[in-house]
Amino acid sequence: MEVLEKQLIANLKSHFFDLIDTEKGLLYYEQFLKEMLYAVKSFIGVDELTAFNCNHWSRELFIEASTNEELNTNQQFTLLYDEFQDYVTRKSIIHQPIPFTNFEQYEILIPLKRNQEVFGYLAFRGIANCDCSDALLVEIAKECCSFLHKARGLCDVIFKEKRYKQLFRVTEKFHSSMDMDAVLEEIIDTLQEVYPTFTYYLMLSHDNNSHKNLPIKDLEYDSENISAMQAYLTGTIQLEDSIQEKKSMLYAPLKGKQGVYGVLQVIAPNAMTFPNSEIEFITLLANTAGTAMENAQLYQQSRKLISDLQLINETSHRLNSNLRLSDTISFMTEHFQSSFDAEEVGFVLVSDDFEQWKVIKGSTSFFFSDGASAYLKYISKKIKNERDSIFLGDLNIEYLLTKFKSVMAVPMVQSEKIMGFALVMNRLPYHFSFETFKLMQSLIHHSTLAFTNSMLREELEKMVITDHLTKLHSRNFLTEKIQRSMSEDAYGTFILIDIDNFKQINDSYGHQVGDEVLIQVSSVIQDNIRDGDIGARWGGEELALYLPKIQLDVAVVIAERLVRKVSELTHPPITISCGVSNWTKDHDDDNFTKLFKRADQALYVAKETGKNKVIIQEVIG
């Protein structure tokens, strides 16, 4: 080689050495390659220099870099790959004509070899303008190989340093967060930053519900997920290559100290085998993420446990505070909705044969609608047959209009007898966890005695204030309610009712039929009044009705309806007479005694003037 050519090579090597300076910001192999091409072009004075590389997997050539900015980098060239390789590998320099498509415009093609293995090609165009021997071009190619080898090694070091800095940063971020979604999101963000061309999925079980747009798959055992399940069960990295789909896959277990929480699937495109250099980093990332997931899960479990204990403690306190049954049920319903994220909560009493049921006041409104009947029938039958709690993740009953998929039902058992059940539902399938189911069982089992005591206490109270024959309230209870109303409300109406010719009924049919008549009239009264109205047995065949906050004209309509209904519905047919009186806040001297006397006088007039009628004795202004 001539002295000038040797000097040119020396200058080129010196320039290459200057390029390897990280302070210039050349941190990526592609940058080094492009700077190298421009340096060679400048030194030897060619028009264009392009570097080609081989994709052994797709068996294609592609442009890796060029001094011609108009060329499409990474453009693939389909050719007879084996024939091309055989042709160029045996030569150190190839002159025009180059017998392959897409190389017609180049005058010289030089293979780039290291250890006798070709890893790329340099293509020269416009070389006629420079005075370079073949020996010089081959020597330049050798120096380019050496430079690229050093550059790749440097980039690998820089890349590894950058990745481990990222891993350190990610580790800090992982352990500063107790949010499972935040940990999963950080895994994906890191992979996207480090491997922008790879594809990745988080393969998790049904117990993990992400609320963010993350690439998450359910981890299920099937023919497509054998490697994933192997990684999950063994806790070791699994590799899988797909020649047909031209990709290589890695399955890294997300592993903590107590178990494996999922699998990270990483897909490398156009790779025969997964790059060894990436396996270590992805394994470290997966292990770090697994530990962070475990910590987040343990933290969430501890918070859930504290919340459950608080719920149990508060529930026990409220159940032991002698609440009314409806108040107790309302309290339990609200807590089940908030703690279990339940859409509907119902507490249901059942008959001995489970054919009839009664929804306890305080349950959600759905259970008092027609749409609830099919669910109550289905659950009642299932509890009757299985005598156990029910935990359904995907309920499917075709004829149901409102589709609740997740259902939990726990029987209320007292003295080995099922008295009813508690039921919670949600439209989403698999919405309730098994831990939630166990908590509900515990709460219902500990609450049933309190429910029973509340019902017995209220039944006893009802017996004290209720006439045992007519099931109407007692006279004393009615008197107390009227006196309270007169102190709190603005007005009200009192109706005194007498069964016409009752003595004649007893004498003709006997006292048993007389009692049945009383029951029939009482039933008519109960069917025609509001929940807030108070019906009572006043004494003997006399009954009474108090209508709080009802004007006199409305009360008269109600009384006339009762007179009509009694004559239509009783057997033997009987009639009643009604005396109606009212009070208003405007009359300060008015009291219960005067109210009763006016009604009694009106009733007397009704009885004396033909019976089966309504007479009014209103308050005098």
General description of the model:
One of its GO terms (cellular component) is plasma membrane. Residues 490-619 form the GGDEF domain. GO terms for molecular function: diguanylate cyclase activity. It comes from Robertmurraya kyonggiensis. It is a single chain. The protein has 15 helices and 21 strands. The chain starts with a helix and ends in a 5-residue tail after the last strand. Helix content is 46%, strand content 22%. The strands form four sheets. It has a six-stranded antiparallel sheet with strand order 3-2-1-6-5-4, sandwiched between helices. Helix 4 runs parallel beside helix 7 (276-319) and helix 8 (325-340) packs antiparallel against helix 10 (434-464). A hairpin with a 4-residue loop joins strand 1 (48-55) and strand 2 (60-66). The protein has helices at residues 3-19, 29-44, 81-89, 134-175, 180-194, 226-234, 276-319, 325-340, 373-386, 434-464, 475-488, 502-509, 511-527, 552-569, 592-608; strands spanning 48-55, 60-66, 76-77, 94-95, 108-114, 117-125, 199-204, 216-218, 238-242, 247-255, 260-269, 344-350, 357-359, 390-392, 406-414, 417-426, 491-499, 534-539, 542-548, 576-584, 614-616. The protein has four domains: 1-158, Beta-Lactamase (2-Layer Sandwich), CATH 3.30.450; 188-299, GAF domain (Beta-Lactamase, 2-Layer Sandwich); 321-458, GAF domain (Beta-Lactamase); 475-616, Alpha-Beta Plaits. The protein is an alpha+beta fold.
